[in-house]
Amino acid sequence: MHVNLAHDRSMLASAHASAREAMGGAARGPWVPLLSAVLKLAGPEVEFLRHAERPWSSATFSGSRHTIALAFTGEAAITAGENLIEALPEHEFTIPRQLVADAALGEVAHEAGPPARMTVELELLLLEDF
Fold first, then answer.
1. Could you read off the pLDDT of 67-78 as tens digits, one per residue?
2. What pairing do the DSSP bridges indicate for beta strands 117-128 and 98-111?
3. Domain span holding position 63
4. Under DSSP, is residue 130 helix (H, G, I), strand (E, B) or coil?
5. What is the Cα–Cα distance from 35 to 64, expressed in whole angstroms?
6. Environment class of residue 82 by beta-carbon count within 10 Å: exposed (0-12), middle (13-18) or buried (19+)?
7. In angstroms, how far is the first alpha carbon of the chain from the final one?
8. What is the pTM of this model?
């Protein structure tokens, strides 16, 4: 699946509306804007594989930990993936009512192909900021 930003914005808006409706009007967590921001940062050649969300808390903060898996197939896509890996730790995410406290690379796997393919797993910690 290659990312078409206009189509994916519509798809994410529909998913967000469905989640809000299923929960009686309350949206479930910040996963939709987070996923949208990560896909935009990754570029149009990215393939979304999966997302997982777990609650997280400490003595003073609460939030959620997110794992996002992406694939990059072909030379141009792999270059975009390498750019994502380089940019991720310092990227300033704008997620409503959330602070991205940590954004790190969890795992990278390369497949020789053809075509060559790189999969990455990203770990992001979001803290509630009300």
1. 999 999 999 999
2. antiparallel
3. 5-128
4. coil
5. 13
6. middle
7. 35
8. 0.78
